[in-house]
Automatic annotation (TrEMBL):
This is Pseudouridine synthase. Its EC number is 5.4.99.-. It is an enzyme of class 5 (isomerase). It holds the Pfam family PseudoU_synth_2. Belongs to the pseudouridine synthase RsuA family. Residues 3-66 form the RNA-binding S4 domain.
Length: 249
């Protein structure tokens, strides 16, 4: 059965579907010896697909949860040679995995990595509104009005207002209780969304940790540690994105 080229590439673990589309558009992909630069082309199982002259092969699909440490890049590689999240999997995972979404350099916590480009595409698509829960240490202590603004949506700039968030005060922090630790759940995937929200209400983020992605929770994972997803977690992810798991057996 024929399938779109970028989907086949994503399923083979070459890259996410979006990244595969970029590879196609920039001339890195050949089908049966011919360069393809147009998105949407369908290929057959018998077609020979090459990326930078290397044939692709279908890999077993794998899924991992990492507790990303502070000061690590959420990327497959870094031009400045800084440590990336993939460094924690070297010599232990043979498949070509990549992170689903991003966490800032100084943000820690739950990060999903996989070679399943189709799931990556669905988890990062705005229509699915995947919940992401963070614990933020912020400067000062937001009052009731600040929390109401976060729950209603905060205007961040002329063209964007944050979606309603779930927030609660966890505790007051600092030697004299001058700061606050707040749990916040959002359903958006914009860069720096949580930091921008608290900046907008006048309480900048000092530390930020993502404690849950969808239903995936860090539990006892230490920074830099990772584990495979179990069958229940994987099934829940596919159900959350209205798909069916291909790895439930």
């Amino acid at each position: 059965m024929s399938e779109r080229l970028q989907k086949v590439m994503a399923h083979a673990g070459v890259a996410s579907r979006r990244a595969s589309e970029q590879l196609i558009q920039t001339g890195h992909v050949r089908v049966n010896g011919q360069v393809v630069t147009t998105l949407g082309q369908k290929v057959e199982p018998t077609d020979r697909i090459e990326v930078d002259h290397k044939p692709i092969h279908q890999e077993a699909l794998v899924y991992f949860l990492l507790n990303k440490p502070r000061g690590v890049i959420t990327s497959a590689a870094d031009e400045k040679h800084r440590k990336t999240v993939l460094d924690y999997f070297k010599h232990q995972v043979a498949e070509r995995i990549y992170p689903v979404g991003r966490l800032d350099y100084d943000t820690t916590g739950a990060l999903l990595l996989t070679n399943d480009g189709d799931l990556d595409y669905r988890l990062t698509h705005p229509k699915h509104e995947i919940p992401k829960t963070y614990v933020a240490k912020v400067t000062g202590i937001p009052d009731a009005t600040d929390f109401d603004r976060l729950r209603s949506g905060v205007k961040l700039d002329a063209s964007h207002q944050s979606a309603p968030a779930e927030v609660r005060l966890v505790k007051k922090a600092g030697a004299t209780g001058q700061n606050a630790v707040i749990e916040v759940t959002i359903h958006e995937g914009r860069n720096h969304e949580v930091k921008n929200m608290f900046q907008a209400i006048g309480h900048p983020v000092e530390k930020l940790k993502r404690i849950a992605f969808a239903e995936l929770k860090l539990a006892d994972l230490e920074p830099g540690q990772w584990r495979p997803l179990n069958k229940r977690e994987l099934r829940n992810l596919f159900e959350l994105t209205e798909g069916g798991s291909r790895n439930e057996n």
